[in-house]
Write a structure and sequence with these properties.
The chain is mainly α and 83 residues long. Helices cover 57% and strands 0% of the residues.
Length: 83
């Protein structure tokens, strides 16, 4: 289950609002809002959200306590994402 407290914390650390994160990922603000409020347990876009927040989906799900673990290796460049 998604830990909304961790999502909010990473958003703050990366200077993202719900709207800015939604725009960056081409998602609706409602999708991000439900995750932040804890109204949704997960999302099909969780890996993309984690990558944008420079962390892992495991951290956002509470499966690890280290927000930085493997995060650097999981960040794709814009070019890699387009491929």
């Amino acid at each position: 289950m998604l830990r909304s407290d961790r999502l909010k914390s990473r958003m703050k650390e990366q200077n993202h609002t719900q709207s800015s994160l939604a725009r960056r990922l081409k998602l609706t603000p409602q999708t991000i809002g439900k995750l932040v409020r804890g109204e949704a347990n997960s999302s099909a876009h969780l890996h993309r959200i984690a990558r944008e927040l420079r962390t892992t989906s495991d951290y956002l799900l509470g499966e690890t306590d280290d927000p930085e673990i493997e995060a650097e290796g999981s960040i794709l460049t814009d070019y890699e994402e387009e491929l």
